[in-house]
Amino acid sequence: MVKARLIALDMDGTMLDGEGRLTARIKEAFRAAQLCGIKIVAATGRMYPSAMIHLREAGIKSASIFYNGALIRDTADGRTIYERRLGEGLTAEILNFFRKHGWYVQVYSDDRLIVVDDGDERCRYYENICGQKAVAYGEKFWESGLDSSKLLGISFDGAEFRKICEEVRGAFGERIYQATSWGSFVEIVHPAVNKAKALARVCDYYGIPREETIAIGDSGNDVEMIKWAGIGVAMGNSKDGVKAVADVIAPPNTEEGAARIIEKAVAAAL
Fold first, then answer.
1. CB burial of residue 56 (10 Å; 0-12, 13-18, 19+)
2. 88-189 is a CATH 3.30.1240.10 domain
3. Care to name a GO molecular-function term for this sequence (predicted)?
């Protein structure tokens, strides 16, 4: 195991267990790592207020990555280090595209989750995951002029989910960065943004070389980060495409795989 000075890890499916909780073991691993000088950096697609529920419990106080890299904020003092939004014009174009096709989409703007109808089953499903209440705009949602950190399409129908991925990519191409997670989420952010680019910015902020980093993740939005880091780790619960780019395969999150990797890094640092 490399002598890491920084460990970046995804939240859902990686940091959190199968029930979406922080275990005592991973909290102790975070504490031990930070005591020996290793930076622990969260790298999540979640919105900032949602992620902070867990990061406060975890005791993580560092520059961390939210909205797949559209926001880097210091969790110790709330200071924004980097932010890149889609812009009002592109946000409106993408919303109109989803509206035309009748697909569900939600907007993240100013750390708020904004939807058409908060009674929609997809909204309720997401609220249950993130622990945040959506703001329902009704039909004015489509003409709201919002700027967005991230847009998220959700479909529980496999064929529709694949169609959304293909058609959004075809329509917007390099004007966006698109990734998937949870098997039903289509995540859209600015093309200057992904977790790898955000991790590079955090490393520059701390003066830590790429070679002294470990990145741990499980989903499509973690692939670039896993490839970029000095050691890239895929969780055992990852799909094959994520495992294919990793240097190391950890046990799944149900077996505390991320905690085990951090424990090895701490042992190497002592």
1. exposed
2. yes
3. magnesium ion binding
Give 225-261 pLDDT, tens digit per residue. Answer: 999 999 999 999 999 999 999 999 999 999 999 999 9
pLDDT in tens, 210-230: 999 999 999 999 999 999 999
Write down the mean pLDDT value for the chain. 96
What is the CATH T-level fold of the domain 6-83+193-269, as seen in this structure?
A: Rossmann fold (3.40.50)
Q: Which amino acid is at 212?
A: E
Give yes or no on whether 6-83+193-269 and 88-189 have one common fold: no
Q: How confident is the model at residue 1 (pLDDT cuts 50, 70, 90)?
A: low
Query: What distance in Å separates the CA atoms of residue 3 and residue 230, rounded to the nearest whole number?
Result: 10
Please check the confidence at residue 270 and state whether its pLDDT lies above 80: no
| Positions of E strands within the chain | 6-9, 39-42, 63-66, 71-74, 80-83, 105-109, 112-115, 135-136, 150-154, 177-181, 185-189, 213-217, 231-234, 248-249
Domains of the chain, residue spans: 6-83+193-269, 88-189
Q: What is the 3-state secondary structure (H, E, C) of 42-93?
A: EECCCCHHHHHHHHHHHCCCCEEEEHHHCEEEECCCCCEEEECCCCHHHHHH
Which of 1, 3, 4, 7 is closest to 199 using CA atoms?
Answer: 7
Beta pairing class for 112-115 and 105-109:
antiparallel
